[in-house]
Amino acid sequence: MIETFLLAMRSEFAAVRRNQGVLGILIGAILLYGLLYPTPYSAQVFRDVPVVVVDHDNSELSRQLLRMADASEMVAVKGLARDMRQAREQLYRSEVLGVVEIPHEFERRVLRGEPAVIGVYANAGYLLAYSRVAGAFTEVAMTLGAEVQIEQLLAKGVPPEHARVARAVMPVTIKNLFDPAGGYASYVVPAVLVIILHQTLLIGIGMLSADTRHLPMPPQAARSPGMWVLGRCVPYLLIYAINSLFFFGVIFRLYNLPSQGDGWQLVPFMALFLLATTLLGVVVGNLFRSSITVGQVLLFTSLPGVFLSGFSWPKEMLPEPLVWLSRLLPSTPGVEGFLRLHQMGASYRQIEWPLLNLALLVLLFWLVARWLTRRRAMAAG
């Protein structure tokens, strides 16, 4: 059995070394994605979103509102428009990403304590820009309203300290857990790096397996198919151990991505994740006769895999059949467990379900790969 394991390992190493296309995917793609993918998000947050303002009130209070908004780091007021038609034209031409409409009698309504609705419109095609514009003017409007109320209380003779307490009976302090900068890169890049490891490993193994399935298999593969399968996994596990170290040891530091967990604690979990992914790749490679077909099919599944993994779209919002389907992909428990261990500092006791999910996938894919290998070896013999 040990001889079968070692023979399979040497044969797979030789096959990987000979196939330049697979090496490009297993190593070149990792370097390319790792260095380039986080770059657009390195600024972390969307700042100075350009907006145009339609000020129907043209009062001192409305101008103060605009000065406060422009002074914030969230938006940049690019100018005034005569009416909403002109503002919409600038939005359609992408000269600005947001429009703010201040109504008539804005100052009068605020001073009288009446509702004064500010219209905030943004290009929802840019989700981050939309949220920044809405958040900026909500914060500025609440701050300005608080200042007006405090001034009114002071005018009535209320002591300053009492006026401030009366305005903020229940102050709220917001802290971003596990993402101190509140940035998009800290949210999306760690999970996507796990998806990249998953997809490139699947594509590389699948394409190589499809290319080599016409070659004769040694008799040891028929006698001990389970050990043959495990031996085939070793080269990929070694290559992706280095790839994982590059991602989580170099890329995280290069882009200042936050991490709470212990790197050594991550090793057993990543080994289980990579083994499950490798075994799935062996299974997939045995189902197709052409490496081109394997690449096309697996590339097509990349985006669905991202949504099924649960970090970009909550699993609670998915239909039940899709939730069960997602559990058949190592990327789902892989992303879930990695984010808890590495980003949130969780313990293994707190990731029991992702661990169990990966362990069951390892067993399932090993049994299927063993059966496929035995059938192929017996058919060749």
From TrEMBL:
Q: Quote the subcellular location field of this record.
A: Cell membrane
Its domain of life reads Bacteria
Q: Which UniProt keywords apply?
A: Cell membrane, Membrane, Transmembrane, Transmembrane helix
Q: How does it sit in the membrane?
A: Multi-pass membrane protein
In terms of Pfam families, this protein maps to: ABC2_membrane_3 (PF12698)
- Transmembrane intervals: 21-39, 184-208, 229-255, 267-288, 295-313, 353-372
Does the record bear Electron transport in its keywords? Answer: no
- Please list the residue ranges annotated as the ABC-2 type transporter transmembrane domain: 25-369
Read off the InterPro entries from this record: ABC-2_transporter_component (IPR051449), ABC2_TM (IPR013525)
Q: What is this protein called?
A: ABC transporter permease
Identify the taxonomic lineage of the organism of origin.
Bacteria, Pseudomonadati, Pseudomonadota, Gammaproteobacteria, Pseudomonadales
